């Protein structure tokens, strides 16, 4: 691969004797990996699980087929190995409040939800209006029920959620030097001074991120670049300007320490992590974990302005809607879903406990999407196919490989032996991937048009 001359010069100086191995790695294939979804019941996956990633609890090296049932049903998430270090370092705890501030397309968010066991509250935010839809779709496929998806710039989010989170992840937009193998076009954006431009934006994002972190809370900062300006030097700035304390990361063989000499010489910088493509079979990442000074006082509540009150009232479920939802659960599920039903227009969501008021911030997905109120009936959402277990449904229909393709193409399935009228979970190899409507021995396909192939 042709690397920019100034890039070669820069890393020749920085890496010295290690530089040839680093440059040689750019001529090798990109490293692939995936994570198995612990939120799903255990099933036999048609995947090679012989090469686990030491630092990533659910992670393996290898390729995932995006059209295969284990991916379509959200039982696995494709994520290259070095990116998995971030979720592992974050180690989000169950029943805590976590923010993923730069979250699309959702690799780290799905990892955070895994660690949290779908409990507590995960706010997955993305600034970009198109990318946030991909984020919501990936979180839906993964079956997260503890997640609210917002579409905001960091400052606006910080204005409504001061000191709200126990853990904030900033997986920052960066110069992407670790992406050159996966996306060779990224070399074209690279120029001298690009790292400094990115660092300025990173500092602005981090200023907002720290406003949202409670005293004593943890910040995880990561990039997919090697540039010290965006890595160790940003951490040094967090320490000197914000009084943050570096929380050292225990390393495995795949990891290398951050380089104090590439910043202000603070020896604590060795407690950060660098993932190099010539050291492990993955792309490249930098990751740091820091603690905000202070101890938590009484929980800070967001201002109860008029807007917040109004929003809450507007989103309350009416008694007629409550009845329709209860009737639908009774008819189709073996379980009653916990949580707080909220209504946006004619859409019903199950909001996770502890959800704050978001004021003017755009909320794309206020929780698990349950479905749509139509005239005198309730139409279930596709989200239920991936968020619930097969055992949660009164009726499941396991489809053949050919029928799996048919469903993904939007065709109906025939089951003349099945009588009655209900919503069924369609599974393949025991993995739920779509909802169907059984009427007179035919299963009407409710697989969303946007996901069909
Ligand atoms: C490295 S990507 C995040 C990848 C994601 N965490 C994952 O694991 O799938 C950085 C994200 O930051 C977003 N972004 C860009 N500019 C931003 C800004 N000024 N503030 C917040 N986010 C920004 C980008 O749209 C992009 O989705």
UniProtKB/TrEMBL annotation:
Composition skew (Basic residues), residue ranges: 303-312
Enzyme active site: 224
Stretch list, region Disordered: 297-316
GO biological process, one term: RNA methylation
GO molecular function: RNA binding; RNA methyltransferase activity; S-adenosylmethionine-dependent methyltransferase activity
Keywords: Cytoplasm, Methyltransferase, RNA-binding, S-adenosyl-L-methionine, Transferase
Spans through the membrane: none
Ranges for domain SAM-dependent MTase RsmB/NOP-type: 1-293
Pfam family name, one: Methyltr_RsmB-F
Entry binding sites for S-adenosyl-L-methionine: 102-108, 126, 153, 171
Family to which the UniProt record says this protein belongs: Belongs to the class I-like SAM-binding methyltransferase superfamily. RsmB/NOP family.
Name listed for the protein in its UniProt record: tRNA and rRNA cytosine-C5-methylase
Source species of the chain: Lacticaseibacillus sharpeae JCM 1186 = DSM 20505
């Amino acid at each position: 691969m042709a690397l920019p001359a100034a890039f070669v010069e820069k890393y020749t100086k920085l890496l010295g004797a290690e530089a040839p191995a680093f440059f040689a790695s750019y001529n090798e294939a990109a490293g692939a990996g995936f994570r198995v979804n612990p939120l799903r019941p255990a099933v036999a996956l048609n995947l090679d699980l012989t090469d686990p990633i030491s630092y990533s609890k659910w992670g393996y090296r290898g390729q995932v087929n995006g059209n295969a049932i284990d991916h379509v049903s959200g039982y696995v998430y494709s994520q290259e190995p070095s990116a998995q270090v971030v979720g592992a370092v974050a180690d989000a705890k169950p029943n805590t409040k976590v923010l993923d501030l730069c979250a699309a397309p959702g690799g780290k968010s799905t990892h955070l939800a895994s660690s949290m066991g779908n409990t507590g509250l995960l706010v997955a935010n993305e600034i970009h209006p198109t990318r946030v839809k991909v984020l919501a779709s990936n979180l839906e496929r993964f079956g997260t029920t503890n997640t609210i998806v917002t579409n905001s710039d960091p400052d606006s989010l910080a204005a409504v959620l001061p000191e709200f989170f126990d853990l904030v992840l900033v997986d920052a937009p960066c110069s992407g030097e670790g992406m050159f193998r996966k996306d060779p076009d990224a070399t074209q954006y690279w120029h001298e001074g690009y790292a400094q431009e990115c660092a300025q934006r990173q500092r602005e994002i981090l200023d907002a991120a720290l406003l949202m972190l409670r005293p004593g809370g943890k910040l995880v900062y990561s990039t997919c670049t090697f540039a010290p300006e965006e890595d160790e030097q940003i951490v040094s700035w967090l320490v000197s300007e914000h009084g943050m304390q570096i929380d050292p990361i225990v390393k495995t063989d795949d990891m290398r320490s951050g380089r104090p000499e590439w910043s202000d010489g603070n020896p604590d910088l060795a407690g950060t992590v660098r993932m190099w493509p010539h050291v492990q079979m993955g792309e490249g990442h930098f990751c740091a974990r820091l603690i905000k000074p202070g101890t938590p006082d009484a929980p800070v509540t967001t201002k109860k302005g008029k807007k917040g009150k109004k929003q809450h009232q507007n989103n309350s479920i009416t008694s007629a809607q409550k009845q329709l939802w209860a009737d639908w659960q009774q008819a189709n599920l073996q379980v009653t879903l916990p949580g707080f039903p909220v209504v946006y227009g004619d859409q019903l969501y199950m909001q996770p406990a502890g959800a704050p008021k978001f004021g003017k911030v755009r909320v794309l997905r206020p929780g698990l999407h349950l479905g749509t109120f139509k005239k005198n009936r309730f139409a279930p959402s596709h989200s239920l196919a991936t968020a619930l277990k097969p055992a949660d449904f009164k009726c499941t229909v396991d489809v053949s490989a050919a029928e799996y393709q048919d469903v993904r193409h939007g065709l109906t399935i025939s089951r003349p032996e099945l009588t009655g009228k209900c919503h069924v979970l369609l599974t393949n190899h025991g993995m739920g991937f779509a909802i169907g409507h059984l009427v007179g021995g035919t299963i009407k396909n409710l697989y969303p048009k946007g996901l069909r192939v």
